[in-house]
Amino acid sequence: MGALAQASGSSTRGSPGTCWPPGRPCDARRCLLSVAVSFGADDCPPLTSDSIVEEAVSVEADGLNSYWLPNQFDLGAPGLIGYLAREVTHIELGAGLLPIFTRHPLLAAQEALTAQLITAGRFVLGLGLEHKVIVEDFFGDSFANPVERLVEYLTIVRSMLGTSAADYQGSFYRCKSVSNRLPLGAVAAVPIILGALGPKMLRVAGEMAEGTITWLCGPATLESYVVPTITAAASNAGRPAPRVIATLPVCVTRDEAAVRSCIERAFGVYEGLPSYQRAGRGRPPRRHRHRRRPPRGARTARPAGPSRRD
Predict the structure, then answer these.
(1) What is the largest CA-CA distance in the chain?
(2) DSSP state, residue 162
(3) What is the pTM assigned to this prediction?
(4) Given strand 92-99, what is the order of strands in its sheet?
(5) Residue 260, Cβ neighbours under 10 Å: how many?
(6) Where are the alpha helices (DSSP H) in the chain?
(7) pLDDT tens-place string over residues 241-293
């Protein structure tokens, strides 16, 4: 059975500038933005530095235009991208998503500047909140006011990336008169992509980042909810149309039953996470859908199941 790989593509196909390099007209045949190993079958061999380089080189050779590395409990994506950059010399390289609870924003900015310098302007910084259960049970931190915390985090990161300095006093983060020794313009601007699905997160992504990256989110949800919400937020903030990178697990196999079993083991946990509970049905989260109450006494039918579009 082949390994389950993470594949992602932009849902803004056909819009100039959504493909790599920036400004190149989008060709729908080449609009698969990334391929990155994030999950594997039980019998997959362990990852090694050579196997990661081999995979990334093959992605570039096959004509795909972006390669993303996941980042949670295993290998550090920014460091690996610096390692890959000498072998993978043309395509975009993304780190996603770095949980903000695991590093100070000054460290995130330092890692991003380093990776951008090494990749000669091809690096994309992916940031995310993580889930409450991971932050509190695994990291031992508080998940209180996560969106407000993210706004402070982004304020410092963007200041460091944009001006090489930061001076900020907030509720969660503080830094005073911090600067780096890189002259302005020495490193290309670093795009920031957020892991955003809820309405508050999508608004922050539209206002303060270059886009969002979703996981296990079907086309109906993307079309009717994610893309309009983040695009409106960016427009209201006077920012360019954001990127929407949709990531999904992909596997080519002749053993469907075995793969389905693997999927249940690997992804079953998402059914219990609020951000994902309704994403697979092609709808926004429950609290943001408006239903008309049926007339008193009227009988209502239960939904038949997930949308066929997902």
Answers:
(1) 71
(2) H
(3) 0.77
(4) 32-36, 5-10, 243-250, 211-215, 192-194, 123-128, 92-99, 66-69
(5) 11
(6) 49-61, 77-84, 105-118, 132-133, 146-163, 199-208, 219-221, 227-236, 256-267
(7) 999 998 888 888 999 999 988 888 888 777 777 666 655 444 444 444 434 34
Nearest to 156 by CA among 143, 145, 169: 169
pLDDT of residue 282: 44
pLDDT at 43 > cutoff 60: no
Q: What is the CA radius of gyration of the chain?
A: 20
Q: What residues form DSSP beta bridges with 247? A: 8, 215
From CA 183, how far away is CA 187, in angstroms rounded? 8
> Is there a contact between 303 and 280 (Cβ–Cβ < 8 Å)?
no
At 178-231, the pLDDT tens digits run 887 777 777 889 999 999 988 999 999 999 999 999 988 888 889 999 999 999
pLDDT for res 44: 57
Name the one residue in this structure whose structure tokens are 């109906």.
220
CA geometry: angle 81, 82, 88, nearest 5 deg: 65
* Tokens at 80, concatenated: 């690996």
Question: What pLDDT score was predicted for residue 121?
Answer: 94
DSSP assignment, residue 47? Answer: P
Q: Reduced to 3 states, what is the DSSP secondary structure of residue 205?
A: helix
Share of the chain above pLDDT 90, in %: 45
* Closest C-alpha among 232, 252, 244, 106 to residue 167: 106
% helix / strand / coil in the chain, to the nearest 5? 40, 20, 45
Q: What is the DSSP letter of 242?
A: P
On whether the CB atoms of residues 192 and 158 are closer than 8 A, the answer is: yes
What domains are there in the chain, each with its CATH number? 5-288 (3.20.20.30)
Cα angle 36, 96, 140 (rounded to 5 degrees) comes to 125
Round to whole Å and give the CA distance between 233 and 244.
Answer: 13
Of the candidates 132, 24, 110, 10, which has an alpha carbon nearest to the alpha carbon of residue 68?
A: 10
